Amino acid sequence: MTTYISPPMHLEELAFFLEVLNSDECYHIGYCGQYKKEIYDTLTTDFSDIDITKSFVVAYSENNIIGALGFDIDEEIKVQRYGAHL
Q1: Smallest Cα–Cα separation from 84: which of 35, 27, 9, 3?
Q2: Band of the pLDDT at 73, cuts 50, 70, 90?
Q3: Helix count (H) and strand count (E) of the chain?
Q4: Which of 65, 37, 40 has its CA nearest to residue 52?
């Protein structure tokens, strides 16, 4: 079994992964959306001031997402917010 960490390879897959975990109260991150379409839109248009490939890392096992860590960078006010799903 190969496990590795990389920038997100497919944002649709990451959005679905986050949707599944957001449905569980223990993992819910409210500000990124609840449903795949909304989460995908947040990731592609409103998540961070830096490119998604530099603000998100995803853990994969056999090409399946097993964890994700995102940093929402606001360059204007120099603030970093983050959300993690494992």
Answers
A1: 27
A2: confident
A3: 3, 4
A4: 40
Per-residue model confidence as pLDDT tens digits over 12-24:
999 999 999 888 8
The torsion angles phi and psi of 8, rounded to 5 degrees, stand at -60, 135
- Three-class DSSP category at 60: strand
3-state DSSP assignment of residue 34: coil
The pTM of this model reads 0.80
Q: Which two tokens stand for residue 73?
A: 């960078």
- State whether residue 51 is helix, strand or coil: coil
